[in-house]
Amino acid sequence: QVQLQESGPGLVKPSQTLSLTCSVSGDSISSGGYYWSWIRQPAGKGLEWIGRVYPSGSTNYNPSLKSRVTMSVDKSKNQFSLSLSSVTAADTAVYYCALRFGLAWGQGTLVTVSS
Amino acid sequence: DIVMTQTPDSLAVSLGERATINCKSSQSVLYNSTNQSYLAWYQQKPGQPPKLLIYWASTRESGVPDRFSGSGSGTDFTLTINSLQAEDVAVYYCQQYYYTPYTFGQGARLEIK
């Protein structure tokens, strides 16, 4: 059974770049040709799909964030990552990584944007 | 973007009774070649990530109790919870994964009456 775990700074200053990593265990990140997603949830609010990355490195981003998002895969570490630039308080949320559209989820990591 | 609209926003149901949550998509998420609708349902409890209940609109995820069922096709979908248990109190989300950006409904809060 695939397990995912997010990691990264819990506090990011405004205008800086948020960087998170998702470590995958229980299977190879390259197996099955599956894609991997990032999803976020502001406190008390709904879910927002940020984008997805394939093992090949191909990506699809939410147009609402596209200009600020970069996703990548590190097959050697069985990890994939998210970078979100020029953050503001509106980017404060719990960030989840997931297998495909949501077959499995990490526990989530809270990222607060504040000076 | 496809807009997913859930109704109701919240509901209170007695233990042992049936709960029904609806989800409507602004465009069809049915892939005609396979006759599969790219629609999932999740349960989220406080402090936890969403848990996948149903995918392909009606396929129950392994380990999910059979009191949970999904139905519908195209643009209109329903999550039904039979014989409501106390542990079913949660927020329920639908999600379309046919078109990117994938989108979620606003959530439906289920409580015990």
Short description:
Chain A has 115 residues and is mainly beta. Chain A has strands spanning 3-7, 11-12, 18-25, 36-41, 48-53, 59-61, 69-74, 79-84, 93-99, 104-105, 109-113.
List the SSEs and their pairings.
The complex is a heterodimer of chains A (115) and B (113).
Chain A: E1 3-7, E2 11-12, E3 18-25, E4 36-41, E5 48-53, E6 59-61, E7 69-74, E8 79-84, E9 93-99, E10 104-105, E11 109-113
Parallel strand pairs in A: 2-11
Antiparallel strand pairs in A: 1-3, 3-8, 4-5, 4-9, 5-6, 7-8, 9-10, 9-11
Chain B: E1 4-7, E2 10-13, E3 19-25, E4 30-31, E5 36-37, E6 39-44, E7 51-55, E8 59-60, E9 68-73, E10 76-81, E11 90-96, E12 103-104, E13 108-112
Parallel strand pairs in B: 2-13
Antiparallel strand pairs in B: 1-3, 3-10, 4-5, 6-7, 6-11, 7-8, 9-10, 11-12, 11-13
Task: Summarize the structure in words.
- The complex is a heterodimer of chains A (115) and B (113).
- With 115 residues, chain A is an all-beta fold.
- In chain A, 0% of the residues lie in helices and 49% in strands.
- In chain A, the strands form 2 sheets. In chain A, strands 2, 4, 5, 6, 9, 10 and 11 form a 7-stranded mixed beta sheet that branches.
- In chain A, a hairpin with a 4-residue loop joins strand 7 and strand 8 (79-84).
- The radius of gyration of chain A is 13 Å and the shape is globular.
- Chain A starts with a strand and ends with a strand.
- By secondary structure, chain B is mainly β.
- In chain B, strands 2, 6, 7, 8, 11, 12 and 13 form a 7-stranded mixed beta sheet that branches. Chain B has a 4-stranded antiparallel beta sheet with strand order 1-3-10-9, with no helix packed on it. In chain B, strands 4-5 form a two-stranded antiparallel sheet.
- Chain B starts with a strand and ends with a strand.
